[in-house]
Amino acid sequence: MDGAPDGEVVMVAVDGEGVASWVAGVAVALVLGVIFVISSVLNTVFLIIFFRRPSLRSVSNR
């Protein structure tokens, strides 16, 4: 490990803003991931319903 020349350990502090922005980024990524999964599932359900019910396959619904 690269330390100080006299063998002491060098401590590096992480400021609160760096951690807070990382946590905010992770939170945004999680929320967007959940929205993506929910919308994908709902779109799949709507497609299944559309193809299984002939009454929904009218010209105006396409």
Write up this protein.
Keywords: Membrane, Transmembrane, Transmembrane helix. This protein is mainly alpha-helical and about 60 residues long. The protein has a domain at about 35-60. It contains 1 helix and no strands. The protein has one helix at about 15-50. The longest helix is centred in the middle third of the chain and has 37 residues, at about 15-50. The mean pLDDT is about 80.
Tell me what portion of residues adopts beta-strand conformation. Answer: under 5%
Structure summary, number of beta strands: 0
Report on the biggest sheet: none
The gross shape turns out to be rod-shaped
Count of DSSP H/I helices:
1
Distance between the termini: 65 Å
Question: Spans with pLDDT under 50 lasting ≥5 residues?
Answer: none
Mean pLDDT: 81
Helix content: 55-70%
Structural class: mainly alpha
Chain oligomer state: single chain
Question: What does the radius of gyration come to?
Answer: 26 Å
**What's the SSE pattern?**
H
Quick description:
This protein is mostly helical.
Mind sketching the topology for me?
Layout: H1 16-52
Key features of this structure:
62 residues; rod-shaped; mainly alpha; single chain; transmembrane helix; membrane; transmembrane
